[in-house]
Amino acid sequence: MPRRSIDRPAKGAGSIINLKTGEALDQSSLPILCERIRFYREKAGVEQKSLAREIGVTANAVSNWENGRGRPDINLLPDICSALRISLYDLYGLPEPSVRCTAEEQLLLDRYRQLSAGHRTAVGELAGTLLKVQLAESAPRISRLLFFEKSLAAGYGVPTEFESEGRPIYLYASREVDRADCVFTVSGDSMEPRFHNGDMVLVSRIPDAPTLQHGEVGAFIVGNETYIKVYGEDALESLNPSYAPLRFHETEAVYLIGRVTGTLDPSQVASAEDVDRYLALHPEGI
Predict the structure, then answer these.
(1) What mean pLDDT comes out for the span 133-142?
(2) Are 228 and 163 a contacting pair, CB within 8 Å?
(3) Which residues is 144 bridged to in the sheet?
(4) Spatial distance between the Cα atoms of 286 and 173, rounded to a whole number of angstroms
(5) Are strands 217-222 and 225-231 parallel, antiparallel or unpaired?
(6) Are strands 200-205 and 182-187 parallel, antiparallel or unpaired?
(7) What pTM was estimated for this model as a whole?
(8) CATH architecture type of domain 16-92
(9) Between 277 and 15, the higher pLDDT residue
């Protein structure tokens, strides 16, 4: 006998369709859940006792469901769907989501279902590892530099004891950031128009002063004061012509902190969320 073609009710329709006849069913007669359990069981060619055995109930329980004398416990619904190879959407006669598995995804899912529990665990662990690698590759790279609270005086400044330790600052990695070791804030206007008051500047530490060339901008310590200045032949010079060069007695020690490599854009400071994600993906640290 040929199978009857059944049309799904339109989305939002109020009537329930008898899956055998295709006719509207009085909602007060048989619960749709009971109707569909019977329909899909018969469609799958599964006897009541076989379905009962697979989901761990008695054949009488299945019979009672199908005749509307009872309903299955909600915790049994996933097992019923698995046994009848249907979805919860099928069981309740609901429209399925627009997102469906592709043929390739469905093939992978079918193969996964055929695996033993141990092999499923192995597949899950492998998928987790691959996803972690993928996330690590796509996550923004973070660099850790040191931020010094003591500002670099772009002017004459007020002598303050320089703290040499600093605190960590996390930045989105770039060629410019990778060249730097620390960050200072500019105080004053003697280095305008290139560096402004309040700018954060990137500094590449240099162990020995002679490695900075004349004409380059550096961060210096003279006594207890820190400066951002142009390294001149016999003085530390400002870019703002309103400021005279700073000259020091030959007995004064001028210490070079490092070369100023550029101005730090505030958007380069990594968000706390990105730092946390990066550290989670890189437990070895930054």
Answers:
(1) 75
(2) no
(3) 170
(4) 11
(5) antiparallel
(6) antiparallel
(7) 0.49
(8) Orthogonal Bundle (1.10)
(9) 277
Could you read off the pLDDT of 64-85 as tens digits, one per residue?
Answer: 999 888 888 888 888 898 899 8
DSSP output for the chain: -PPPP-PPPPTT--PEEPTTT--EE-TTTS-HHHHHHHHHHHHHT--HHHHHHHHTS-HHHHHHHHTTS----GGGHHHHHHHHT--HHHHHTPPPPS----HHHHHHHHHHHHS-HHHHHHHHHHHHHHHHHHHHHHSPPEEEEEE-SSPEESSS----PPPSS-EEEEEE--HHHHT--EEEEEESSTTTTTS-TT-EEEEEE-SSGGGSPTT-EEEEEETTEEEEEEE-SSSEE-SSTTSPPB---TTS-EEEEEEEEEEEPGGGBPPHHHHHHHHHH-TT--
User: Class of 142-272 per CATH?
Assistant: mainly beta
Nearest of 208, 202, 218, 211 to residue 148 by alpha carbon = 202
Of the two residues 205 and 83, the one the predictor is more confident about is 83
Instruction: Round to whole Å and give the CA distance between 55 and 1.
Output: 30
Nearest to 281 by CA among 128, 78, 147: 128
